[in-house]
């Protein structure tokens, strides 16, 4: 059966009233609500139904949180089972059957060499809390305060996490070039650009006059998400592992958005075959509910009791939902499915780019896809076009498709559909995106022509 969008219903009084009260009551910090003025009331799988009666295909998925889409039956059943059992819902860090089942399932998904000698710390409740815990962990274990991170990274919104990619000043943090093929910091791209980025890192660490604070760790995303869906080359990741291992610098892999099958392997580090010292996990591991953990080498477990944990680290409903999600993704080989379907979608989007000069680059891994929109101009690459990207997002919304923006100047349209996406749904997503892109492009051309005429 084809996935079609019904004619939009007239906005209801409730719909408009809720949006109005939100704008009057909520903080200016709200983000998604500004670009996506919808009021979800029901959801299942890929589909959200708004209070205005319209249905939307959700390729935001809670910023990558919903590995199985909205309200998947295995997740709902796991939550109901805990609720019906009478078990306490809040347990701090006490041992419970629910936590034991979650931890067992989590360790079953890890790369075997990593799982054999690993410890898990439950943080609470967001990915940024887990990042803070990971930074504290490696600094405590090594006795060194310096930290290596990468341009374009996003690791959260708490003070320590914001300092890592440059959102806040911290003299202890050194930001290194990330191999961004389309906008290579060295102007070369490809294998040469990645090699120069690795060599820069190596030379900086080995130069006694660099002024580099003694690094307690390196943190990186195997695929930069908020940075614009930029996959790290596998060879470069292996070099980072070699460089850090040779200098006894713990390597932290931030898998908050890339984990649980999103990129076509269960954990994105598996593409390159590296074994990090620490993995940061959140979003999908809670099965749509708040949960964050770090998993790390046992010899790094030197923290004092109570270090970077949090009151809500014992979220039993999230652990039950998370265990069900992890098991379903693993048992049904949804990571393999994401790899196959994602490659097909990337190929079709690259074909679309050939007919649209405003598409500068199409990239991604698995069902983590980015389309960078540019203003065709002299120079290579062309400058980002954030206005066009915002217009495409709105044209998508008007066609019943929810997408996110990110990357340089928010000019990258990001697609993060659930791993349960069907072939038929993928076609509908791409059809709506292509139509929205054409409409936004036509409007931009008319505006530019009108400006030139005047």
From TrEMBL:
Pfam families in UniProt: Aminotran_3
Keywords carried by this UniProt record: Aminotransferase, Pyridoxal phosphate, Transferase
PROSITE patterns named in the record: AA_TRANSFER_CLASS_3
The protein's required cofactors: pyridoxal 5'-phosphate
EC number of this enzyme: 2.6.1.76
InterPro entries in UniProt: Aminotrans_3 (IPR005814), Aminotrans_3_PPA_site (IPR049704), Dat (IPR004637), PyrdxlP-dep_Trfase (IPR015424), PyrdxlP-dep_Trfase_major (IPR015421), PyrdxlP-dep_Trfase_small (IPR015422)
CDD domains, A to Z: OAT_like
GO molecular function: diaminobutyrate-2-oxoglutarate transaminase activity; pyridoxal phosphate binding
Protein family according to the UniProt entry: Belongs to the class-III pyridoxal-phosphate-dependent aminotransferase family.
NCBIfam families linked: dat (TIGR00709)
Name used for this protein in its record: Diaminobutyrate--2-oxoglutarate transaminase
